Amino acid sequence: MKVYDGVAGFANAEGDVLGTSDWLEIDQARIDTFADATGDHQWIHVDAARAADGPFGATIAHGFLTLSLLPPLLNQLYRVDNVRMAVNYGLDKVRFMAPVPVGSKIRLTATVLSVTSLEGAVQSTFESTFEIEGSDKPAAVVHSIVRYIA
User: Fold this and answer.
1) What is residue 135's three-state secondary structure?
2) What separation in angstroms does the CA of 128 have from each of 17, 47, 97, 144?
3) Which pTM does this prediction carry?
């Protein structure tokens, strides 16, 4: 894990490769819980019998479920100490490139694309890639923005 000391320490992080998270298995219980939380009960996510005959051969994770795992997986890679708070500022780009079948394991690799100094803060853009174990194609590539307030 990379540790940065405050806004000043993170101000020079541009270009840093943060590394790779642990693998996380995407099981049906997680998919079902996400479906309940969002109201998205499309059969390709929650109906194992129907999905077995569908285009992916099994249920798949919601793309937004994969995206929602960005903060906890990024938290395995780095932290910025001695700040008042961090705020998710938004997303510049999200691409869902491959489905994540139930039972798959995913992990995250991230790089700091840019860091911009603001008054009493810094704003950073990260490029994060969700890998699927055993797949040549990533599940998603995301450009996310975080602000750290001194």
Assistant:
1) coil
2) 10, 30, 13, 8
3) 0.95
